[in-house]
Amino acid sequence: MKISTEARKLAQDLLHFIDASPSPWHAVDSVQSRLVSAGFIELHEADAWQLQSGSSYFVTRGGASIIAFTLGKQALTDSGLRIVGAHTDSPGLRLKPKPAFAGEGLVRIGVEVYGGPILATFTDRDLSIAGRVTVRSKNGHDTKLLRFDSALMRLPNLAIHMNREVNDKGLVLNKQTGLPLLFAESEEGLEAEQQFLSFIAQALQVDIGDILTFELNVFDTQQGTLWGANQEFIADSQLDNLASCHAAVTALVECKQQNATSICALFDHEEVGSESATGASGSFLADIIKRITTGAGLNQEQHLRTLAQSFFISADMAHAYHPNHPAAYEPCHHVMVNQGPVIKTNANQRYASNADTAARFITLCKRAGVPYQQYAHRTDLGCGSTIGPIVASGLGIASVDVGSPMWAMHSIRESAGVLDQSYMVAVLRELFNS
After folding, report:
1. Residue 233, SS3 per DSSP
2. What's the pLDDT tens digit per position in 248-303?
3. Closest Cα to residue 109, out of 15, 166, 193, 173?
4. Does 100 share its domain with 52?
């Protein structure tokens, strides 16, 4: 398989992006840095906006969701909006508000399961924590990003001598008693909570009493890598769905002088249903679109005409065919790694694709010179969903669900293809330029 220098460079950039983004808050920070470097102007929802045609902007909400857009040259009612949506969160483990407890001379950290991770993949890994911490300040409180790059915690497996059936029945972890992470040996005279908080305070260079709250998730400290005989594959955490975030942002910043107004919307909380102020079920995207159309002087009827002309691509990862498990797949819908974006279809509207929107995406692929594939889940297996149906139903915009094929979705270490990232960037660039 021939892989161009450009495709390898893009894949390496994806790995750098993911490794810099061990939490949704870090992911938004990484995206924001890229947008600022590309000349995008930051806006705040509480401020009055003065938008200029041809200019590029971004706005964040809640620290873990971000929307970037470039105002096109054509009238909104003529061209509509070109929108790509993805999500910044990934399934895994989140620390409880008071996570530390001691026993048998050890401090352990209590966690909650966020979304639907493959829990067994978190065992025997070099784990750490990342997220955001609010600390007391003169103005009330400030938010600080926090990450520990070194291995900080671990979830050791029980030896096979004490779990003889693990290779026959699989590893089963009780979510309450089997997931607390080993953190440290207990320090004499210091409560477990104080021991944990002092560790955070030292890292942030604040007093322990100034720590008010935090949202922290567990991540794997092993960095992403290329693998395979020809280095044709990618391995990293959070490919679902930071690979789609990376592709959408890359495509948007590479497009100059678009005719249509282009929007990249990256949401938090997709893995837990999107029902939040920062999720796709919230008002964030609708609010930004309304401010764009209002800023352009459009009335309500013209706003609705703009939506009717718009097109939304929900970009989320897809299930690549695994040759060791052929019975898990629909026979005529084997999608392969490094063979192009996947159009995802479900008759029960778990995906937003329909015949018309799928055809529009196929047309974009052909214009971009990109191969494409089609996927449907086995009928007797439950199908996942995306932000696609949520945005489509909320805004009434023609929508399609697509994604790059990957293996081990929701594992702490996922795999995908080098070529597929460049394919996805190319077709999303074609959308923004259309």
Report:
1. strand
2. 999 999 987 789 999 999 999 999 999 999 999 999 999 999 999 999 999 999 99
3. 193
4. no
Q: What integer pLDDT is reported at residue 1 of this predicted model? A: 77
d(CA 334, CA 193): 49
Average of pLDDT values for 310-338? 97
CB atoms within 10 A of CB 221: 19
DSSP assignment string, 84-149: EEEE---SEEEEEEEEEEEETTEEEEEEEEES---GGGGTTS-EEEEEEEEEEETTEEEEEEEE--
Can you tell me the distance from the alpha carbon of 376 to that of 67, in angstroms, rounded to the nearest whole number? 30
Domain carrying residue 177: 92-220
Using DSSP, state whether 371 is helix, strand or coil.
coil
Q: Is 15 left (phi over 0), alpha (psi -120 to 50) or beta?
A: alpha
Looking at the fold, whether 204 and 132 belong to one and the same domain comes out as yes
Write out pLDDT tens, residues 27-62. 999 999 999 999 999 999 999 999 999 999 999 999
Per-residue DSSP letter, 312:
E
* Inter-residue contact 20 to 30 (CB < 8 Å): yes
In a shared domain, residues 257 and 193: no
Radius of gyration of the chain (CA): 22
Is residue 144 a contact partner of residue 63, using CB atoms and an 8 Å limit?
Answer: no
User: Greatest CA separation found in the chain?
Assistant: 72
The helix or strand, by DSSP H or E, that contains position 187, with its residue range, turns out to be: none
Residue at which a domain ends, from 220, 253, 270 = 220
Q: Which two tokens stand for residue 380?
A: 């007797």
Q: Among candidates 5, 82, 62, 67, which has minimal Cα distance to 32?
A: 67
SS3 390: helix
User: Confidence band (pLDDT; 50, 70, 90) for 312?
Assistant: very high
Domain assignment present for 184: yes
SS3 at position 59: strand
- Give the DSSP letter string of 257-288: S-SSEEEEEEES-GGGTS-STTSTTSSHHHHH
Number of neighbouring beta carbons within 10 Å of residue 404: 30
- Find the CATH number of the domain harbouring 343: 3.40.630.10
What pLDDT was estimated at residue 398?
A: 98
DSSP tag of 69 = E
Q: Is the pLDDT assigned to residue 397 strictly greater than 80?
A: yes
Beta bridge partners of 184: 107
CA–CA dist 400, 312 (Å, integer)? 7
CA 125 to chain centre: 21
